Please model this.
Amino acid sequence: MKRIVLVGGGHAHLLVLRQIARCKPPDVEVTLLSPSRWQYYSGMLPGWIAGTYRREECRIDLQALSASANACFLEDGACEIHAEDRTVGTTTGRLLQYDFLSLDIGSETACDSLQPLGAPLLPVKSPDFHHRWEEFIKLCRMTPAFSAAVVGAGAAGVELALAVHTGLLKVRPDVRVTLICGPDGPLDQLGASAQSIAAKFLRHAGIEIVYQRVVGTAEGVRMPDGRSIAAHCVLAATGARAPAWLGHSRLGLDVDGFVAVDDCHRSRTHPNVFAAGDVCSRDSGAIQKSGVQSVRLGPVLAHNLLAAAQGTPLRAYKPRRRSLYLLSGANGSAIACWGTWCSSGRWAWRLKDQIDRRFIRQFPRLPDTIAIPSASI
Model:
């Protein structure tokens, strides 16, 4: 019996558990370690902020999914890995032993420049994002001329700004939202067409675009020329950084602290450790940090974990050169990008909504009030 420990409930691990539930391998013992029973699907986060989805529609029940795969679910967080001893330490003091380990814990938001004392900062990758956003909604109800600033030039920043504007307008009519995207403008990595469409969406919503870099202050943010933008909350979608505790794991890391993996997503220094999603990197740079890539990787990771446990050949993951990106416009429309081609419309929103709802439906769930007993370790 081989012990497989899955750390994190990211996109790839969801599909690993789904595959294990289908094949029920008799020679492995699987444990999923995650700090919450609920895994919120990032693709539906802007829709939830905008008020399109209810909270319950956007999350996956990790406990029910684990039970379907005959896996043990532990509601606990990882805080250390001892790769030489093959153990994982948790925030509550557990020490889990493994034969094979897989990491799909995502990343943190890189926002050190926005963190002065007293700043009302909410990183998009914050583990308590949903709770804290609901607190900001309560504050908005009580605050005339409520203002929010979103910092980030990528797809997450654009979606977040549009969703925040739509969500806050449902609370009060005098809100102001600013997108701070730096000198290159929004969606610069997706090409000129995407930039033009995103700017049109933002202008139509009445969202101010600031083409400068900023630092945080206790009242909001400050630009290099000394001008300030006051904000009751600052939301950061400013890129990914690796969890600092990985630095003590003895795993091989890249220069930015992410787990270095080969084409099979196996650690380059510890062949019994795998990693997926934002927490890992490949030397070729062929894989982007996106949910689309993690979903496609999931079946390959499932094969490789079981193959490693059974001593059979692994399979390389080959990312597609292009992926379809669908960005919520929070107004019944969406932006669709495929390579350098970009378009928008209600058809794109209907397609995104259909894809997101279908993704959620493929995983089992129970009523929120029903808990499945988990084995203690």
The CA atoms of residues 121 and 234 lie 5 Å apart. The radius of gyration is 21 Å. The mean pLDDT is 91.
